[in-house]
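Structure representation:
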Amino acid sequence: MIHEGLPAGEDDRHRHGWQHYLSRLTQAARGIDPGEDPIYEAGGVPLHETSR
């Protein structure tokens, strides 16, 4: 999967987000509850809200 066309300087933020959320998705797909999202709980913006 390729995620391209990011604004300058956003590479690290998006890389971290992909790693974090794909890990959580993998857990959910295995039937494991990934629990509360620490990024969201710490006041981070979920990736689906960054385009607003």
